[in-house]
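So, does this match?
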Amino acid sequence: MALQHEEHSLHCSYTAEQPGCRSLTEKQQRKMSVHSKDILCIPSERILSAGKILRNAILSGAPHLIRDRKYHLKTYRQCCVGTELVDWQMQQSSCVHSRIQAVGMWQALLEEGVLNHVDQELSFQDKYVFYRFLEDELEDAPVLSEEECKESMEELPDTLLFLSQIGPDAHLRMILRKHPSERTADDLEIINEELLHIKALSHLSTTVKRELAGVLIFESHEKAGTVLFNQGEEGTSWYIVLKGSVNVVIYGKGVVCTLHEGDDFGKLALVNDAPRAASIVLREDNCHFLRVDKEDFNRILRVRLRVCFILCCCRYKIMSGTPEKILEHLLEMMRMDSHFTESDDFVLMHCVFIPNSQLCPVLIYHAEALQGSEQEKKDYTLNNKRRVIHLVMQWAAVHGESLQHEEVSLDFLEVSLLLKQLYKYLLIVCLSAVLFKVYCCDHTYTTIRVPVAASVREVIGAVGDKLGSVDDLLLVNLSSAGGESHSSYLIPLPEQEGPSTGTLATFELMSSKDVAYHMTSYDWELFHCVHELELISHTYGMQCVMKTTVNLDLFLRRFNEIQFWVITEMCLCSQLSKRVQLLKKFIKIAAHCKEYKNLNAFFAVIMGLSNPAVSRLAQTWEKLPSKFKKFYREFENLMDPSRNHRAYRLTVAKLEPPIIPFMPLLIKDMTFTHEGNKTFIDNLVNFEKMRMIANTVKIVRHCRSQPFSKLHTIISHQRKQHTDVLI
């Protein structure tokens, strides 16, 4: 069985030598000079285009902002002032809500050299400071044509929306580039908020993270293949990957693993005062890191990590092993007075690599002692039985009723009484009669009542009794994979045609808050019925654990129902004024769903409004009040998929349960983890993969850890029912 220590780490670096800093060797100075080149030599095409559009828009609407300026008897040609740029940007779009946000948007341009400080400083400041666009650096700057002016004004809203999405990251990098002594209280708060979501720091307390926020330094490297440090060198820093990935290389073995965003490295050498155990090489271009220098590391973390090293078995985690050895290790490490998450991961994921029929004998084996004196056997058996029982209790709690369908599990748990009750229950179900429709070729149907376990012959007989004849009756299961050759011959039934008129007349009588509440109440019932094992079965295939994933399928289908309901209502509304009212109502419903922490319905409504069938209704969107346009843009920003849906993940991390999460994203996370990692490596279970999938499942568990309180909401609605404005 392979174990891997958490030899990852946090990373910070000075971008330039500051007054009062300790003296550096020549090698370190050369290294820092490389790290200080934070402006990209060649800006990206998207940023270059954004800078050009902003410059043209300024020249078109406010040309006085770009002009020659004098300061201290020196003339700076074709410059803008930082405060004026921020003022202008806030006037152009409702998606810019604060001056801090605007600073981050301008910083994104400055980082790539599209906007430059006249003294080549790397931070954009909301002050009387001069900046110059890249095109104005040329002696013969191009003259703006009327056509370019018109195009820039048309593209300005989309450009500002794009910059508002990348601005927060640029603002964070700007703060991290500052010397720690220059950071304000607001700067430290922004850094600390980012640290809350870095997995390498998840085991540290809030106090430690706040201390780290004051010493972290930003470091970036442009080229893949750059060596951050070599095996055998003295450890001087602890690193965290903020963007990109690195390879861990060991002499004679080559690349042993790859670390990605959120991983850390370099910690073990500092804790043990030992040389670097491996070399770190950049795997891709434009990688960003955080760094903590050795002095700050020793002051803040070393004592804590040494204690953790002793008490937590050096924070070793199972990476791979045979199922039997993994179970043996978990039982040895289990402490009855603590929450041991590794055993929880095993219980949740064991069905992937060891079925219950094999697990039960192994658990019995570990509960018995085979060697030693009678007293030793007695003590060993007592301790091990306690651990096994603790694990079995976890196992039964997670798998629940699914264990009743396996004879091995029932024999192991010794619940023959439950087995008898199960048979009695199944007998009732099989004899129960149900009503269902049987369709004929002419699209008529007949309704029959037959037992659940009825055979085909019994169904045909019941239909024949209804129709008056049983001759030439054939029961057919008709299905289609959507191919044109089949779908062209299928005539939809009237109830399958869909509505021809909207429900606005009824819909406008209900308040947006009431609609959002009832949507959330129903969504919570569906979400609460989804079993954790259904997520695993959906990822690995239904044959793995649960025989069905019907609850999960219903909940996923609910997302599509809401999304297409929004699209249908908008497209069936023929009057422009009514359509504007309907658009406002859906935006308010989305806002209330977000208020109720129903993010699944929130995303469904917003994605419905973002559908091309709705977004192309130009006149409707033009007449939408600016207040609602602002709300809608905010909601769209929350849906931004960049950096693995970072905006959404940060929002969810701040919420307290109960929460209805955006389920398609959780499914995507599990699918990517499953398809991107092998389940078995060299005939050993890849337990790290099991842990990653289990962590995603635990997000669902956390979201449901508190009940959805309907009573409080109903009472508050009754108090306000006469004062709510129906929109």
About this structure: Confidence is low (pLDDT under 50) at residues 3-37, 305-315, 415-419, 714-727. The two ends are 62 Å apart (CA to CA). Residues 146-177 form the longest helix (32 residues). The first strand starts at residue 2 and ends at 5.
